[in-house]
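Continuing the series of single-chain predictions for the mutant panel. This is the parent chain; the variants come on the following pages.
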Amino acid sequence: MLDRAIGRRDSLTALLLPLAERTLLLPNVAVAELIDYLPGEPVLGAPRWHLGMIEWRNLQLPLISFEAASGGEAVIGERARIVVLNALGASAVRFMAVLIQGVPRSCKVDSQLSYVDVPLKPLELAAVQIGDTVARVPDLVALEEVVGEWRGDLR
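Parent structure:
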């Protein structure tokens, strides 16, 4: 995802999104908005990664724990925030709300990304070294598919 975007220019502004036990790296164009944490309205029979539905700009969005969707546990810390992501794939999902643990940091990345050989969780494409941080590149298209499969009517 980042390689293709960088290939068209010398560098790309990206965001480091802090999770409970890892950090995600996304191009800033993938992020629609950062909002304060608010608990989602529970949905009966929802998978454990689905933390409820939240309202954002008159839309109902699924609040997603990336960690739980990748086989871990959902963590809602005292610095919890929500990042609203623009959908990238061909599913009916247009936006997703993902729980993060703090404020994202901006960084510049270029085609000289330093890949790191560390174990990856499901929904992670790669790991890269950004300064002192090992960041994971999420598979947002696969995450959209997971959400879309669970709620085929989600728009």
